[in-house]
Design goal:
The protein is mainly α. Helix content is about 75%, strand content about 0%. Helix 1 (about 5-20) runs antiparallel to helix 2 (about 25-40), helix 1 runs antiparallel to helix 5 (about 85-100) and helix 2 (about 25-40) runs antiparallel to helix 3. The longest helix has 18 residues, at about 5-20. The radius of gyration is 14 Å and the shape is globular.
Length: about 120
């Protein structure tokens, strides 16, 4: 499976977030398709992360994992996030994780995806 096709599915899921917020039924459907695509692309790391995110959303009916904080900008990020509602923070975090998944082999993206993976693993 080509990363371009996978990225189109990621864009569809991000559009669901924009249009419907945390509509879990639509999100879960899109995430299941994304997981199948990563599996077909023989990318076990992204397949596993997508499965864990799916299970997390199913269990919690939302996405409770925070965006990984930048060490140097930690104070600024906390101030910015305090201005957002809980749902906005959840949408922003899921959207950010999906954005990282568009280039999972990028060194910086891989490091932040590992943080998401660890948080989902709990």
């Amino acid at each position: 499976m080509d990363q371009i096709v996978i990225n189109k599915q990621i864009n569809r899921i991000q559009q669901i977030l924009i249009d419907s917020g945390m509509d879990t039924d639509k999100l879960l459907e899109g995430m299941k398709e994304l997981r199948a695509m990563f599996s077909a692309a023989n990318n076990p790391r992204m397949t596993r992360l997508t499965r864990m995110a799916l299970e997390h959303i199913e269990e919690n009916e939302t996405f409770l994992i925070e965006i990984p904080a930048d060490e140097e900008d930690e104070d600024t990020e906390v101030e910015t996030n305090n201005e957002l509602t809980d749902e906005q923070k959840q949408i922003e975090s899921l959207d950010y994780m999906l954005s990282l998944m568009t280039k999972p082999d990028n060194k910086l993206n891989a490091a932040e995806l590992t943080i998401y993976y660890d948080a989902l693993k709990g």
